[in-house]
Amino acid sequence: MIDYKTDKNTIIFQKAVKELKLRFPVKEISERMNYDKGNISNFIKGKKTISDNFLDNFFIEFNLDKSKFEYSDYSLNINQNNKNGDNIVDNKNNTLLEKELELYKKENDLLKREMELLKREMELKK
Fold first, then answer.
1. Does 1.10.150 match the CATH number of domain 3-89?
2. pLDDT in tens, 56-82
3. 94: burial class by Cβ within 10 Å (0-12, 13-18, 19+)?
């Protein structure tokens, strides 16, 4: 069975959880937010909708910038989940944008390194 989800809060939450790279996300989020593990698990799998209040409290508790994970309605994609809740379809446009963003971040890092080297070179010439 395929379940179609377009809930913004779920997508934002899933991206934020992925960014945290927690070893045991259900356990850690549940303990820190004093929330039932079953609900947290269902939020992560996209089986249960997430309230604005919960999402706001999550970002406060984990000291994350919510604006980093938000996006406009045009970029919402339809996630197809199998019966285990695993995403089986990846939106090609979002994937390309994420790859492009990653390349820009790498380019930015290289430019920062180049600036540092130029500064060091200028100091050595003095």
1. no
2. 999 999 999 888 877 644 344 445 555
3. middle
SS3 label, residue 22:
coil
Sign of CA dihedral 11, 82, 22, 109: negative
Both tokens assigned to 120: 């060091």
Predicted confidence (pLDDT) per residue in 7-35, tens digit? 788 888 989 999 999 999 999 999 999 99
Q: ∠ CA(16), CA(91), CA(1), 5° rounding?
A: 90
The domain segmentation of the chain, as residue ranges, is 3-89, 91-126
SS3 (DSSP) at 4: strand
Digit-coded pLDDT (tens) for 86-102: 554 445 556 777 777 88
Sign for the CA dihedral angle at 67, 55, 8, 108 comes to positive
Return the half-sphere exposure (C-beta side, CA atoms, 13 A cut-off) of residue 94.
15
Q: Where are the beta strands (DSSP E) in the chain?
A: 3-5, 79-81
